[in-house]
Request: fold
Amino acid sequence: MDIQQLNQDFGIDGSVRFTEERAGFPIIEIKNNFATAAISIYAAHVISYQPVNTDEDLIYLSEDVIYKIGTALRGGIPICWPWFGPHPTDGSKPSHGVARKTFWQVSSTETTTTGATRVILKLTDSQESRALWDYRFELAIAVTVGETLNIELITRNTGDKAFDVTQALHTYFKIGNVDQVQVLGLDGCEYIDKVDGGEFKTQLGEVAIAAEVDRVYNDLPAELIIADPALNRKIHITSKNSTTAIVWNPWINKSKALGDFPNEGYKQMICVETANAAKEVITVQPQSQYSITVEYRSESF
Ligand code: TA6
Reply:
């Protein structure tokens, strides 16, 4: 991708520019009156969002992130699609699907009527994708950077046969202290405990982190909150067309096992992922579409 051409075609003076600190991996840098943000065109991967007048990015990106085709960026907002987790029937296929390990195309950039910045990137089926998942599709992500960060992922079935998807916006949030962070809103929800053999359990009280946590919650409310007293902030997570959320923290041993993640990284991040997964499988009929949306808003305690 030619950076000069991208800036010519999609740059917006003063708010959208394309840079390439890592050769071959162009980044969309966004700056407006509300916030700064950055999106990797590889994997259409949001890697930063920081509202003005705040001291910390909302998004956690591993300092050991690896930019390599076929490798998912560690941190940011990976797009897990068209399946969440291992492939439902074929373990040889890539975990979390095909969308997060390939280049997307920039479709449009614009300044909205409120002065926010909206960027749309698209991915369509290819010989490579059809070898892994034999369907015709167009996948679009609309990222709106303003007082909030709004992400909409739209699946269009452009073929002649219905298909099922599970998916997740697998967001890594930056936190001040894993020992103090809580996820509010899941009390009483059923979850699959992936660190305890996939047992079905019920959440008692708010979610805190004191070991590896890998839980798939179903039937959840439209809003969750990450309460982070160490950074004196609450992050409101509001979703549409999603009743599944995953809470993940790798804790000590898994952090050490991940080659693109610092050993102490678990202390500064928590994943709260907006999804359609587990029993929430989405069937998309030919020539129709399905959209999942999440909005992040940060406020002081
Ligand atoms: O969403 C939680 C999870 O499914 C965990 O099981 C863990 O595997 C995490 O995703 C990260 O997966 P990745 O393939 O990006 O290393």
Summary: The longest helix spans residues 3-10.
